[in-house]
Amino acid sequence: MRRDFDALRERRMRAVEMFEAGRRQVDVVVELEVSAQTASRWHKAWVEGGRDALASVGRAGRRPRLSDEHVREVEAALMKGPKVNGFPTDMWTLARVAEVIERVTGVRYSQTQTWTILRERMGWSRQRPARRAVERNDEAIAVWRKTEWPRIKSARRRGAWICFQDESGFSLLPAVRATWAPKGVTPTLRHRFSWKRLSMAGVLAYRSDRSGAAFVFQIKEGAYNTESLIEFLTALGRHFAGDAVTLIWDGLPSHRSKAMKAWIATQRMWLRVEQLPPYGYELNPIEMVWGNIKSTELANLCPDTIDEARAATETGLERVGTNYDLCFNFLDHTGLLL
């Protein structure tokens, strides 16, 4: 049914007369048969703007819903990214989205309404972006998957272990992860503010027929360099007792140094080395080992000493190393099939 705007205006003007005569809001509710909220809103408008404030209140009813076509147009604009839409950073806020909606459709929405449009009309959610280096070459990574990985995994012909290597580290600073807490009460982690740090090197090793997996790790003070990595690889060779190894790692300077290349050349009887494409970290399953430990044993841990942090880290590394299924799950997550 269409609303009788003249009758509505007449009722508002009658309320103005009652307010001017000193009548109370409750009298307006009873005589004009309106809600207490309406009477309160009219009284506030009359106090602040007089008779003219209630002479016309603009169009009645809720703001019209965006049509499906408008939603598609808005989403197309948002998909271009915040910077293309004139904002200085790549972050969508409700205020920025509302501005784009107004620019595209001519209708302005509150942040609450904008949230509803994003969630219910577009199916969007608030997410933390993944970081990706501008030097990354997606084409080179795709080529490595298609051509290099099939060649590398042919190591089964010489019975070699396929080994993925990487380094990481930890300190007294906690690995902050989300936790449950009462609404509006942000948890606080109280920790030692020390830059003392330990490094860890690890190798996830697989039999090419999936008949076995192994995880070898080492923890040391200070950062790894060519010399300490050669010591680690020497220990790795002893661990596999002369078995052939195909080692896959990234292009860190210590992996490509002259000294490292010279040492590798002397180990050809058991060791072959392959390099991952630049910034192709998602191809290395051991990256997930570090993340798993930092989300479990080290999550929100605030140790008093570096030895306490080391003990927790070793517990996590040993947990991974004794779980073959987990080791293979990390490999499967990369999409590299044996």
Q: What keyword list fits this structure?
A:
single chain; alpha/beta; five-stranded mixed β-sheet; 338 residues; 13 helices
Report on this structure:
This protein has 338 residues and is α/β, with parallel strands linked by helices. Helix content is 46%, strand content 12%.
Structural class: alpha/beta
| Computed Rg | 33 Å
Q: Uncertain regions: pLDDT < 50 for 5+ in a row?
A: none
Q: What is the CA–CA distance across the termini?
A: 68 Å
Shape label: elongated
Largest sheet descriptor: 5 strands, mixed
Please count the beta strands (DSSP E, at least 2 residues each): 5
Instruction: Estimate the strand proportion.
Output: 5-15%
Order of helices and strands: HHHHHHHEEEHEHHEHHH
What is the residue-averaged pLDDT? 89
In order across it, which strands form the biggest sheet? 3-2-1-4-5
Counting DSSP H or I runs of 4 or more residues, the number of helices is 13
Helix content class: 40-55%
